[in-house]
């Protein structure tokens, strides 16, 4: 396979993956708490080939040599963790995060994190357990489930503290929602239902950090993260940006495919030559 076809094939492979990422973003445009994926590309085996001395002519101002590469490939898939817009729902079990943070939930396979706060209750005898939409219990700062006694309504303050509210009785603190900050979000592995987990064998403390939201908020080093009850975070995907990226990726893919066809045509011409 000649260099033209190699470069075109490598580029088409990377661009196909970019198109898949754009399609994933568009498909999750209305998914609560979804974070946009972005792709980065790099040249493949780029090096400088030297000209022979015949190219060293009087008056030449450009340096000798020319760049030879083999297309580009996808080198990094990252997530845009920027804040999505907040939508007021008025539902007491809907919770949104303002700031760079994730909720912690317990799953059958271990700890996971999520941005979406569309929580629900699971009835357990005379109590209700706060869970995700998939039934994963929302963890407290004590690494226990958050349980709401029967007859009490749930109230959550901006620090994530959960209170049981009952008419005629003082509020009862039931725990605090555990919130973590992703230190290296690019290392988190996204699984089904927009859950994030640690890669196998990774050290938790190097990837996520448990936040203390009850400290002095005037402290410049305090985490600027707020828990908002009765609200949900929208996806941070912009349809305009995705459409612009889609057009660029499609045009680049079209260009690479034409280069591949040109290489094929040249080979066909060479094969048809007769001595």
TrEMBL record:
**Which Pfam families does the UniProt record give?**
Flg_bb_rod, Flg_bbr_C
- Does the entry feature the keyword Cell division, yes or no? no
Start and end residues of each Flagellar basal body rod protein N-terminal domain: 12-35
Q: What is its main location?
A: other
Q: Which family does it belong to?
A: Belongs to the flagella basal body rod proteins family.
Which PANTHER family is this protein grouped with?
Answer: FLAGELLAR BASAL-BODY ROD PROTEIN FLGG (PTHR30435:SF19), FLAGELLAR PROTEIN (PTHR30435)
Specify whether Flavoprotein is a keyword of the entry: no
> Where does the source fall among the domains of life?
Bacteria
Sorted alphabetically, the keyword list is: Bacterial flagellum, Cell projection, Cilium, Flagellum
Q: Which residues form the Flagellar basal-body/hook protein C-terminal domain?
A: 228-273
Q: Name one GO biological process term.
A: bacterial-type flagellum-dependent swarming motility
| Name of the protein described by the UniProt record | Flagellar hook-basal body protein
Enumerate the subcellular locations listed in this protein's record, separating them with semicolons.
Bacterial flagellum basal body
Q: Entry's NCBIfam families?
A: FlgEFG_subfam (TIGR03506)
Q: Which InterPro entries match?
A: Flag_bb_rod_N, Flagellar_FlgE/F/G, Flg_bb/hook_C_dom, FlgE/F/G-like
A GO cellular component term found in this entry reads:
bacterial-type flagellum basal body
